[in-house]
Each structure stands twice: as structure tokens, then as C-alpha cells.
Amino acid sequence: MRKKSVCVYCGSRPGAEPAYIANAEAFGNRLAQEGWRLVYGAGDVGLMGAVARSAQAAGGETFGVIPQHLVDWEVGKTDLTSYVVTETMHERKKVMFMNCDAVVVLPGGAGSLDEFFEVLTWRQLGLHAKPIILMDTKGYWAPLTALVDHVIDQGFADQSLRDFIHVVDGPDAAVDVLRG
User: Fold this and answer.
1) Residues of the chain with pLDDT under 50
2) pTM higher than 0.90, yes or no?
3) Which of 75, 96, 98, 164 is the residue whose CA sits 20 to 30 A from 86?
């Protein structure tokens, strides 16, 4: 049986709240404990580095994908189980998504939002049925979910758009959804 793979989108910075790093580390550890492979952006900084180092420390398998132009900026983590360097950001996102069974979005910036909206749009269009989970550490994603609700309320999307998003408060709840 093939190992479950979970794509984690998250910040290349640690963020303002210590809980962001703590949840990233706890989630990396939980992925390894469950025997699931981490698929992520291959950086060794911020939340990306925290989730990967934690998964590795717990004996987990890691699959990192990074575009060449970010190898230095995000400090490409080359000691992963699998380390892939792509030519473009688009190629990075495609490789990450094609190699996962579910997506979990931890706090992050514009890049994490881009990744989230791309997989949400693909789900809305029926291009996949993979779970999409927002880890809402300390209410980080509350403005985002309010925006999605606003889009629905204003008639630009069906309620199903919101139904595609599982909002959880931490690693344990994310694992519960992933176990499905």
C-alpha cells in the first residue's frame, strides 16, 4: 500500500506568534508518527523549515520541491528523503500537488495564499477531490474564511466553496480530518 502524502503550504518566515512555530513542529512530528510523507516547499527557514526538521527528527519521510531561483533565499533543505529543484514556481506547485493526497495550509504569506487559492479553485472546478485543511492557529485564517464567506454571500460562489475547506485549530484536529 502506498504511503499517504500530505502537502503542507506555509510561511518561509516564523511569523509573529510562537504558536505558529510550535504548531508547525507538532504537525511535522504528527505526520511522521502517522507514517505519512511530508510534501512541502523544501525550504529550511520559517515554518517550512520547522515542519520539515520536526518530521525528520521523528523519522518521517520528506519530499521537498523548490524552484532554482529560491534555493538560496529559502535555503534549500537538501537532506530530505527526496529533493526536487524545478525551473519555475508553477512547476513547483504542480509537482507538490501531484505528489500529495491532501493539502494542509499553516500560517503564511502571499505564497501560501496563492497555493491555497489555486488548489481551492481546482477543487471548485472538479479537478480534484483532495481535502484542503486550514490550520487556523490563534485565529490566523479567520480573515480568509470571512472573505470566502463574503464571496459566497455576494453571489460569486456557491456554498460548496466553503464546504471544500476544513478549518481546524491545530495539529491533532488536522490529523483527525486526514484520517477521514
Assistant:
1) none
2) yes
3) 164
pLDDT at 1: 67
| Residue 6 bridge partners (DSSP) | 38, 102
Backbone angles phi, psi at 3, to 5 degrees: -70, 135
Amino acid at 10: C
C-alpha cell at 99: 505528489
Asked if 170 and 133 count as a contact pair (C-beta separation under 8 A), the reply is no
| Maximum separation of any 2 CA atoms in the chain, in Å | 47
Strands (E), the chain: 5-9, 37-40, 62-67, 82-86, 102-105, 132-135, 165-168
pLDDT at 19 (0 to 100): 98
Stretch (H or E) spanning 177? helix 171-179
Only one residue has cell 475547506, namely 165
